[in-house]
## 1
Amino acid sequence: MYSEKVLDHFMNPRNVGEIENADGVAQVGNPKCGDIMKVYLKIENGIIVDAKFKTFGCGAAVATSSMATEMVKGKTIEEALQITNKAVAEALDGLPANKLHCSVLAEEAIKAAIEDYLSKQKSKNTN
Ligand code: FES
Ligand code: FES
């Protein structure tokens, strides 16, 4: 029922951990299941140079976080904001329908971490 890519990213998740002094950090929860994901981004000149995550959640949440953090690295924040949970699921060769909601966690966590970064930039500029 899971693709080989999902199993690979679940067994060997990329980018697990924390970034010290991250430029953007966010934690989101999935209201459907109570699972939690925290994302850390390092951003330089508008480009995401590093991304790490911690997930307290199911295998599909771990696999989508792993893939999503891989996908945003090297992208501009504008490009990263375009990445949908569907794109992440497709990059994993699909998820079972009842596990699609798990991929929303990764998309939301990345968007929220970018927003955290942008709001910090704003407050820097107004000081
Ligand atoms: Fe059981 Fe996410 S609700 S693993
Ligand atoms: Fe909760 Fe997958 S079951 S994120």
Note: Strands lie at 24-29, 36-44, 47-56.
## 2
Amino acid sequence: MTQIGKAISRLEGWQKVTGSAKYAGDYNVPDLLYGYVVNSTITKGHIISIDTSDALALPGVIKVFTHQNRPGLAWFDIMYTDMDAPPGTVFKPLHDNEIKYNGQPVALIVAERFEIAREASALIKIKYEEMHFETRLDRNIEKGRNAKKGLATALKPPPPKPKGDFSLAYDESPFKVATEYRHSTEHHNPMELFATTTVYEGDGKLTIYDKTQGTINSQIYVANIFGLHFKDVRVLAPFVGGGFGSGLRPQYQLFFSVMAALELKRNVRVTLDRKQMYSFGHRPQVIQKLRFAAETNGKLTALSHLALSETSQFEDYAELVAEWSHKLYPANNTLFSYKLVPLDLYTPIDMRAPGGSTALHAIECTMDELAYQLKMDPLELRLKNYAEIDPSTDKPFTSKALKDCYLKAAEKFGWNERNPEPGSMTHGNKLIGYGMATGIWDAYQFPARVEIGVNAEGKLLVNNATTDIGTGTLTVMTQIAADQFGLSLDEVTFGYGDSKKPFSMFQGGSAMTASTGSAIVIAANVLKKKLLDKAKEITNSPLKDAELKDVMFTHGRMYLKNQVEVYVMLTDIVQANKGKTIKTTNLGAPHMFDLRKYSKMTHSAAFVEVEIDKDLKTITVTRAVTAVAAGKIINPKTATSQITGSMVWGISKALYEETILDENLGKYMNMNLGEYHIPVHADIKQLEVIFVEEKDELINELGVKGVGEIGLVAIPAAIANAIFHATGKRINNLPIHFDELL
Ligand code: MOS
């Protein structure tokens, strides 16, 4: 009876589809007050005055908080940031009268009803003094500078140092391509809006339902900035309606909800609307310049990737952009750089394969151009430059089955039917294009603590503070835990989404299965030892001389290997423990020191077919196949969902999503789902996912690398390459608009 590897449907699926799942804004606690936030309409400057009298006169309005009457908090004088904060000074709502970006929250109205609070927001009169601002990356290129270093940069180091002599090698190589790629801003737009319901329990105690990707991150934030004891702050997020990175940092609705609850000693909910979701973090604008050179046989000789990205004036948000080509391809001469330009916008925040998806688009399109120049098949060029060890660090991979990804996906797709000549393949009045690209993503693993125990009914109780942002975490963790003791899924309860449970980092980076999953295995092994010790104490115990390595667990029994008749029931062991749950709490730390000698990566290969109307140039992605190498797949069903969803993001990034900035106003203009385009069902055709076998005995206890973002990274380039194949046109910005093909 093994649960790992089974295609199991989400255990909480019925709660989601029947509407019984409660999200942060759904907790209708008694005597609830509602907050509505007012946002700045200018981009940079100062508030001269705020007149709240009309708003306060509206029946049902309880209070209006502004920078003039907000409570004094230690936070406003100390340097406190959240777990995912980049180096710099975190933005503090209502700190003073300074406006740092358009949409900055400047007031909170608290009323008896949400509608009253929103109505009152229109009655607040604010006078501003406006100052000159800069919001365009391409107009401020000369301001590019290195990113500051800080705690959060541990996961985002600067790009590798140069090798050899790039300029010389590039000049002397017979084949070379120089490209420039531009990406505009994107916003996460999870379905669930940002909301926090704070229950004021008295005695400085709070129970907080927050829309977050990290319950403990929100707990630490609240405790620190409001000067509360950690144990008095409980943050719950049992259901999260998508995050995509937007919930990695505590957002301002949390601050406002808690501030109002503490000040008014009442229960307070603050919900942000769709437009307000555009005021606290985005995928940054990026400009990339690449130069790749090769020998006549296609072997790369020189790689250069220079990236310029935006950040805010107060924090240095960095992502990994410039290094990915050299994690995929060897070359003796390299030159990489990553620079930031501070602009008068809010700090960017990780969004769906941050950095990697932007970088891989540029890299894999540049490789495609090189393949055309060499008159070589794009897949053959990748295979010719296949790296058996990580060229950027000279470290071996813990495992790498990328070659299988290429070959299996190519076969499934029918890549060998491709005529390489651009515009040569047609179907009626449609141009057909085939494109391919490579994907790579870090196999992250974070420290996690897991509590695991057996209760009097013989049920396994497992606890960790992680959220499940829609990825299938509950199901996957239940499967992993069940297998440790040979139990069925209904004999296991996985408790999560609660800051009171043992430590978890925020849920991001496709790291949770490796992090909490491995911690479950480690904790289970400790519990087994504890159970055996207790089993030995039972009178006439049949296991009194047994060693742990000879003991098996299944169906609620522990027994001697090869002697199923020699067993002790787990319920009897708990009985002997006076019926009290036998449990243990252990840290599953990534064995960072052992793994320092290795490169830990997931890989993918994507093959895409586009159909382009010959006259109208409308683009449809008709087929896409992605093969993924990500170690062991715990649940093929939820993993396939992860990759399929990621492929949809890839289509979205390539053809639909962009936040449009009005440079005269310094303001985003399409802050709604009507004008911020994402694909609808009719835009999504045939998507296929293949998981190639990849046995990884080094990476962690489970051999898992995690899936999610790896499904996205290759898709935009594969689509752009397919569009080139169909039309002969290279469009070097995303999203690609069909009118650019006219
Ligand atoms: Mo993410 S951008 O891994 O939440």
Note: The chain has three domains: 16-132+190-273, 141-186+282-444+597-741, 446-589.
